[in-house]
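Handoff note, outgoing to incoming analyst
You'll be picking up this chain. Sequence as last confirmed:
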Amino acid sequence: MAFEEYRQRSGEGQDVDKQEYSKRYCFDVSRWQDLRPRRDEESSLAPNSEAASWTEFSQSEPAAAAELLVTRRQLPHVGERFGPFELTALLGQGAFGKVFLARQKSLSDRLVALKVTFGRPLEAQKLARLQHNNIVPVYSVHRRGKLSGICMPYLGSATLADLIASLMPHARLPPSAPGLFRALCLSTGAVSV
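Most recent structure output, in case you need it:
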């Protein structure tokens, strides 16, 4: 019961220390996992744009949030391997995983994007059914414990934010961009077009 209270309070984002339970109930807590996010995890789990979502998630699903914190510690880092992939750079990360530039040694030593998340790769199953020029295809899915790796082609490091930033200083947009740019600006409230 003490551990369940500890897990619930941790999942709700309360600053709780397992040693507090050791002192209060006079028993060994050394086998309990530390469920408090470390400082580096707090910043990557809840960047400003995702802070509200993370707070809502951790309050509505405390057990899942606690499991996510434990699982995030199992996510690989640059320089490590994930199955047949050598992780060479971090392309991006969010609350639920990381995307790496990876070298697939086992297949022509090609560069790929590898999205590593926890849980079953349901997203990959849906994406694999779709074929469209504007949807990045899924090459393969890999499992390692509770983690899933979704292998996709690496199409470069430019982001949509980079595209917008490069277009902003120009008085005129390229002929193919106005519709896209207008939609982006209106949806973000950045510019009235």
